[in-house]
Every structure is written in structure tokens, then in C-alpha cells.
Specification:
This is Methionine aminopeptidase 2. The chain has 2 domains: 264 residues, Alpha-Beta Complex (Creatine Amidinohydrolase), CATH 3.90.230.10; 63 residues, Orthogonal Bundle (Arc Repressor Mutant, subunit A), CATH 1.10.10.10. Helices cover 33% and strands 20% of the residues. Strands 1, 2, 9, 10, 11, 12, 18 and 19 form an 8-stranded antiparallel β-sheet that branches. Strands 3-5-6 form a 3-stranded antiparallel β-sheet. The protein has a 3-stranded antiparallel β-sheet with strand order 4-17-13, with no helix packed on it.
């Protein structure tokens, strides 16, 4: 879910893993010379500190990106033959198609697949070796172990997101209505996340913004907009467990002429992820994104367009039950010199456009969210009080849309909703659009800056 702010305003991994020896190798060594068993274990412990885990749940998708890749490759074959006891073990069930089995039932031990493990990006004034040493630091690994409950919650949400989008990406076809697409996606995600009030569910409404509309559009009841073959649609949805939010998005298009636009934005997102890390300045991430995105161009109807970053859309930090937690990650150079910190969650999202590269509010509003910092405000209208109670019960400080209010039982709520917005209790987030006739694309991942490494939690086989 996009954060909006102008540039001017922006002034265990490697837990102490115990590497299990290959059973056959161990028996052979013990048979020849029992004393060699200890030596082999010692050697293993030396290399374990420099290795990053490359295993993921049912389908491998991680890539370790650090200087010790060659060392990891030497033991990769052995790793493929065995399961790390700290990774999630499946129940033996296989996900259905369409997916119907809750993620918690697929991983009954509560250990969910890790995301992609990477080094922290090089930081201004910080020696590059310092970031790599985090993998082997006993202190950092101990800090990793202290937060395993939080890590498992966010990984649970990530796996629900991965399986939902894997299904929905193949399911969406031109000719479907946007409401049909959103309802199918949301029904699937609710089932997989095991929706349970504010403990587990969707983190914000499904964004399905088309063409010149970059973000914050979801259809209201009665909107019969149809997805066309020539549309470029951004699918942006979130899942959460106990308020630990996965914010992740991708762009769908059916006409191959948009390939260069989409590729440019995806590569810019990857540049932002690579540049991120503990002690990295937010402005340096923005500079890395802009450099990559502006190196791409797309030809449409005989005219060549440079892919422009949308300068007043940003990534953002994420807090418990708070999608925009205070820090913004620009996608152009300049902006805040604030540094990223340990155990922070970030949505690294980039938007590219063939238009002006700047968005404004447009169209009917659908997205709303209770003001996280708003203190008690006296309400005179009884309908406003009732609507606020419904919002508190069903969404808390998570974003919602008009369709979701109706699903929760609200009716004739327009005046009450306007009253809550006028009093600053609830904030409206209208669709954000560039100039008509242009095309916009978006990619986004949620990352966790662990003490030992950077985990791209929402990483999947698709992107």
C-alpha cells in the first residue's frame, strides 16, 4: 500500500544452526576411527557461521547474496537432502487448487518458510565487511533467536500471500470485472490466513489500479469496471498475523508491448531491496531506485518514453497494526538522511510511469483508515459512534474499504463516514493518478532487517 509524500517533505539469519552430518558419512567415519567424528564436527562449525540458509518450505526460492556464495555451493547438495530442524515441517497435506487449506494446517509445528536471505546493503560510512560479519556474530545471532515468535508470525502471513498470488496470477483474465477479481483474491487470502478478527486477516483492501491510476483504487459496490487486454493493472494486497503485516504488490499485463515498462519497475524494486540494510540512509535507497528505473524506456504507438519514478510515492516502514509507521523510503534521490535500524520492517515499493511521474487524488474514494495517532474525539452523531465501534471491532487501525464496511454489516453509513473523516478520526485515501493516457507499474516486497541479515520475507518463485 503506497505511502504518499513529496521529496521536499522527505528532508538466526544464521541462527546458531547445528549442521547435521550426513548419516552415511558419519557411520563410515565412526567405523574407521571414532576420534575423527569430533574433528569433522569442529570443521563443520567453522563453516556454519559463514553460510546462509538456502532452504524454503515446499518450493525452494531463496538465493544467498554474499561473498561466501562459493562456500555455500560446496554444501548445497547435502542441504538439499535434509531438512533443517528449525524450518517448517509440513503436515503431509498438499495445497489444493484453488487453494483452500489454511497455512497453519500445512505447517502445524508453527515454523514457516523463510524468505530470501541477503547481506545488509553497504551503508555510508560503514565498512562493507561489518555487514557481512553480522552473519557470524554470536551477539547478533542471539538477538535473532530472541525474536523468533515475531519472525514466525510475519512468515506465516508471507506464505499466505505467496500462495494467494500464485493462484490469482494465473486465474485473472481480461473480461473479468474488478469486483470479481478482488472478491476472489480476498476470499482466497482470508481462507489461507485463517481469518480470525484482528488476530489474522487482510491488512488493507485489494488495490487493483489500472493504467494511469497508480494506487489506492479498489471498486466500490456498483462499480462494474472490466479488466481489458490493454490494461496495466497493479495488484496490491496485504495479509497479517497479530498485526505483523506483509505489504506486497505486482503488475499484471497481457499485451507484451508493456514488458519494458514492467521490467524497469521490477528491476528498480530489486535495486531498492539490494541497497537497503541496517545503518543505510533512506535517501541512498531512493538514489539507487531512480538510477535503475530511469535507465529503462518503452515504445508505445511509435513514441519512446523514459520510465519515470513517481516521485511523490514512496516505500515506508511498517509497524504492528500500522501500515505506514513513520519512515518513508523515497524512489528518487534526495529526501531523508535517516538511517534504517535493526528489526525494522519496510515495504520497498517502486512506481514507474510513462506520464509526468507525479500523482494526484482522483476518482471516487474507496480506501479509509483510522488515524493511528488520533486521541479521543467527542462524537455527536449516534450513527458516527456506531460506525466507529464497527471499525474498531473489525479493522482497528488497519485500512478498510466501503465494500468491507458493508460486509461487516454497515448500511447507510455515508454521512457517518464523512463525519469521522471531517473530525480526523478516520483518514481517506483516494485513488492516486498520473495524467490520463499514461501507464504506470508497481512492484513491492516486505523486508525485515534482522540483526544478522536482511530477509526479503515476501519473496516467492514469481518475483
Amino acid at each position: 500500500m503506497a505511502a504518499v509524500k513529496t521529496v521536499e517533505d522527505n528532508k538466526n539469519h544464521v541462527e546458531d544452526e547445528e549442521e547435521e552430518d550426513d548419516v552415511n558419512d558419519t557411520e563410515e567415519i565412526e567405523a574407521k576411527d571414532p576420534s575423527k567424528k569430533k574433528k569433522k564436527k569442529k570443521k563443520k562449525k567453522k563453516t556454519a557461521g559463514t553460510e546462509a540458509s538456502v532452504e524454503n518450505g515446499p518450493e525452494p526460492r531463496d538465493k544467498v547474496q554474499n561473498d561466501s556464495v562459493e562456500d555455500v555451493a560446496e554444501t548445497e547438495e547435502k542441504k538439499k537432502k535434509k531438512k533443517n530442524k528449525n524450518k517448517g515441517k509440513t503436515s503431509g497435506k498438499t495445497q489444493t487448487n484453488p487453494p483452500t487449506i489454511p497455512i497453519a494446517e500445512l505447517y502445524p509445528d508453527g515454523n514457516f518458510p523463510e524468505g530470501q536471505i541477503m547481506d545488509h546493503g553497504p551503508a555510508e560510512g560503514i565498512d562493507e565487511r561489518t555487514a557481512k560479519d553480522r552473519f557470524t556474530s554470536e551477539e547478533k545471532r542471539a538477538l535473532d533467536r530472541m525474536h523468533q515468535d515475531i519472525y514466525q508470525e510475519i512468515r506465516h502471513a508471507a506464505e499466505a500471500h505467496r500462495q494467494t498470488r500464485k493462484y490469482i496470477r494465473d486465474w485473472i483474465k481480461p473480461g473479468m470485472t474488478m469486483i470479481q477479481i478482488c472478491e476472489e483474491l480476498e476470499t482466497t487470502a482470508r481462507r489461507l490466513i485463517g481469518e480470525d478478527g484482528l488476530k489474522a486477516g487482510l491488512a488493507f483492501p485489494t488495490g487493483c489500479s489500472r493504467n494511469h491510476c497508480a494506487a489506492h483504487y479498489t471498486p466500490n459496490t456498483g462499480d462494474n469496471t472490466v479488466l481489458e487486454y490493454d490494461d496495466v493493472v497493479k495488484i496490491d494486497f496485504g495479509t497479517h498475523i497479530n498485526g505483523r503485516i506483509i505489504d506486497c504488490a505486482f503488475t499484471l499485463h497481457f499485451n507484451p508491448r508493456y514488458d519494458p515498462l514492467v521490467k524497469g519497475v521490477q528491476e528498480a524494486t530489486e535495486a531498492g531491496i539490494k541497497a537497503s540494510g541496517v545503518d543505510v540512509r533512506l535517501c541512498d535507497v531512493g538514489a539507487a531506485v531512480q538510477e535503475v528505473m530511469e535507465s529503462h524506456e518503452v515504445e508505445l504507438d511509435g513514441q519512446v518514453y523514459q520510465v519515470k519514478p513517481i516521485r511523490n510515492l514512496n516505500g515506508h516502514s511498517i509497524g504492528p497494526y500500522r501500515i505506514h509507521a513513520g519512515k518513508t523510503v523515497p524512489i528518487v534521490k534526495g529526501g531523508e538522511t535517516t538511517r534504517m535500524e535493526e528489526n525494522e520492517f519496510y515495504a520497498i515499493e517502486t512506481f514507474g510511469s510513462t506520464g509526468r511521474g507525479q500523482v494526484h487524488d482522483d476518482m471516487d474514494c474507496s480506501h479509509y483508515m483510522k488515524n493511528f495517532d488520533q486521541q479521543f474525539v467527542p462524537l455527536r452523531l449516534q450513527s458516527s459512534k456506531q460506525l466507529l465501534n464497527l471499525i474498531n471491532k473489525n479493522f482497528g487501525t488497519l485500512a478498510f474499504c466501503k465494500r468491507w464496511l458493508e460486509r461487516a454489516g454497515a448500511s447507510r453509513y455515508a454521512m457517518a463516514l464523512k463525519d469521522l473523516c471531517d473530525k480526523g478520526v478516520v483518514d481517506a485515501y483516494p485513488p492516486l493518478c498520473d495524467i490520463k493516457g499514461c501507464y504506470t507499474a508497481q512492484y513491492e516486497h516486505t523486508i525485515l532487517l534482522r540483526p544478522t541479515c536482511k530477509e526479503v520475507i515476501s519473496r516467492g518463485d514469481d518475483y
